[in-house]
Amino acid sequence: MDNSFIWPHKDLLDVTQLTVEETTYLLDLAEQFHEVNTRPVKKVPTLRGKGVVLFFAEDSTRTKTSFDMAGKRLSADTFSLGKSGSSMNKGESLKDTALTLEAMNPDVIVIRHRSSGAAQFLAERLNCAIVNAGDGWHAHPTQALLDLFSLRRYWKGDLGGKSLLIMGDIAHSRVARSNVHMLTKMGVNVRLWAPRTLLPAGVARWPVTVYGDLNEALTDVDGVMCLRLQRERMAAGLMPDISEYASIFCLNRKMMERAKPGAPVMHPGPINRGTDIAADLADSVESLILAQVNAGVAIRMAVLLALCTRTGLSEE
Ligand code: CP
Question: Cα(66) to centroid of ligand 1, in Å?
Answer without folding.
Answer: 10
